[in-house]
Design a protein that fits this description.
Blueprint: E1 3-7, E2 13-18, H1 19-27, E3 31-43, E4 48-57, H2 72-78, E5 92-96, E6 111-115, H3 116-122, H4 143-150
Length: 165
């Protein structure tokens, strides 16, 4: 499925949607085409239209705080669907870096993707105690980072709107 970056009226990134949804927003005059994919066309029985790559909403949508929701799938996306202990992409689960029994919480900086084997070996220990170093330290991704890196990024047209500056 072709992905399209949706910008708020002030050109700030808002979300990602399908090309079909973006076309409908443009057709209903709720958004304008900012960038199109020159290689693709959307066709109907009698017409041909540009395939959107980036669209901008006609009206500003107020969002008080943009944050990435903590969920199992979002942690897997952040960790590239690989165990942070051994690099495996099979039988993945979540591991609490500092075990819950030792006061470790369920938050971005304490959850890591782990395969069932590594999670079982680590058990109720810290990575240092188990002598199992993490390949990267767990972190909370920013909203823009999440849109840029984990939402099906498809076009260089997006880069100027997803810079971290």
């Amino acid at each position: 499925m072709r992905r399209v970056l949706v910008l708020n009226q002030d050109y700030s990134p808002l979300s990602v949607c399908s090309a079909e949804r973006a076309f409908l927003l443009i057709y209903l005059d709720k958004a304008e085409l900012v960038h199109e994919d020159p290689k693709l066309r959307m066709r109907s029985v009698g017409s041909s239209y540009p395939t959107p790559s980036v669209i901008r909403l006609q009206k500003y949508i107020f969002i008080p705080f943009k944050s990435v929701m903590l969920s199992r799938q979002n942690v897997f996306k952040r960790d590239a669907h690989q165990c942070l202990y051994c690099g495996s992409d099979k039988d993945l689960t979540l591991d609490h870096v500092v075990p819950k029994s030792r006061g470790g919480g369920s938050n971005w900086t304490n959850l890591a993707t782990a395969c069932k084997r590594c999670n079982s070996i680590k058990g109720d220990k810290t990575p240092e105690e188990a002598e199992m170093p993490l390949s990267q330290k767990p972190f909370k991704p920013s909203y823009i980072m999440f849109v840029r890196n984990f939402s099906g990024f498809t076009s260089d047209d997006w880069l100027q709107y997803l810079s971290l500056n």
